[in-house]
Amino acid sequence: MQMIDFERAGGVEPGRLERCLGLTAVRVGIGRYRVTGGDEPHWVDLRSQLVPRCDCGDHLWRERVCKHILAALLREGDPRVIREIGGLVQRLREPRR
Question: Which residues face 33 on adjacent strands?
Fold first, then answer.
């Protein structure tokens, strides 16, 4: 599995992480995915050295890890994304004050 430099790629933003859970990532090649479930389908390439690529505006304009990249990484079983989802679930379970 490709080791992505999350710091260089903008980290994992909780809102994007939550939105990625409603998406479907279908593997179309080694490290390449078609991600659907949003307004339109997007293509993700996880094979790029250190920083993955997506054709969505969020990734292209902001140069951040978008929800489509997170969905593809989740499909790959990336342990860092799975750990972040665990943290998201924990925060959602905390009582609101």
Answer: 27, 44
